[in-house]
Amino acid sequence: MSNTIAFIGLGHMGKPMALNLLKAGHSLRVFDLNADAMKELQEAGAQVGESAVQIAKEAQMVFTMLPAGRHVRQVYEGENGLLQAVAPGTVLVDCSTIDAQTSQDLAAKAAKLGLIMLDAPVSGGTGGAIAGTLTFMVGGEDQALDKARPYLEAMGKNIFHAGKAGAGQVAKICNNMLLGILMAGTAEALALGVAHGLDPAVLSTIMARSSGRNWATELYNPWPGVMPDVPASRDYQGGFATGLMLKDLGLAADAAVSQNSATPLGELARNLFALHAAQGQNAGLDFSSILNLYRQKS
Ligand code: NAD
């Protein structure tokens, strides 16, 4: 008998991930606080639930893709939380990017209730979520990952077992600290070149074929119009919100403090994104809009 899957949190990432589970032929029930977010999935064949608990009770595997740790805690252990409601043996997979301590706490509570929980944050952006090519960084037990793997493979291309509970989050936070640094650095370099009269597309091509090459120059250029189909070319709509990048850089800073690690560039990037997020509506724009902090407007 095929498993019933519950998917909770259908935002920029969760919606395309859930659509890929449907495309792979899985029976899917979905829930989001925002009713509009569920429409497309319903049209594609998913059953829409009335609450997270209602759909999770009937599922053998539950995925959550929520903004931050407080939402994850609320869904799992708040009033009517999933942990108390789902049947023993249910596999719970949280794909949100949150602090490792929360993932460890929830996994320990889940285990006491006979449940299996994995942290499985992702990388690859909305493009990777749509294409089903995400990278999953998984923390938790081997057997749990074995159960989740076929479903993760419907949504992603690379599935890494980082270690025990919380290890997926640590890997993700390290990755996103580097992403914040490289996006700010790429924006800084492009703005410097353009201030000297270079064409941003020409400079981008040069850097993409030189030692400054990185994920932003190859796939996610922050300068409007240089690449089609990236947030920079649609007024920074969609993609990965500046507010979420700021959250991840804060998680990296907390993680650094807890181990007395030095992360000076990560801290600088956090401050740059905090300055940027505080202006106007920037927190809701894609994080590549950090370019506007550097760009000289004529
Ligand atoms: P988002 O804000 O677009 O989506 C979150 C969704 O969760 C929203 O639809 C919201 O209504 C829903 N939600 C919030 N609380 C809920 C609750 N209690 N019950 C049900 N639904 C609830 O965020 P996103 O961009 O999809 O990101 C989700 C997570 O993935 C974040 O932790 C983010 O850091 C991480 N992430 C995002 C990207 C990206 O490119 N957007 C890439 C990698 C990882």
From TrEMBL:
GO terms for molecular function: 3-hydroxyisobutyrate dehydrogenase activity; NAD binding; NADP binding. This is 3-hydroxyisobutyrate dehydrogenase. The active site is at K172. Pfam families: NAD_binding_11 (PF14833), NAD_binding_2 (PF03446). Residues 166-294 form the 3-hydroxyisobutyrate dehydrogenase-like NAD-binding domain. InterPro entries: 3-OH-isobutyrate_DH-rel_CS, 6-PGluconate_DH-like_C_sf, 6PGD_dom2, 6PGDH_NADP-bd, HIBADH, HIBADH-like_NADP-bd, HIBADH-related, NAD(P)-bd_dom_sf. The gene is mmsB. It comes from Alcaligenes pakistanensis. Its EC number is 1.1.1.31. Keywords: Branched-chain amino acid catabolism, NAD, Oxidoreductase. It comes from the Bacteria.
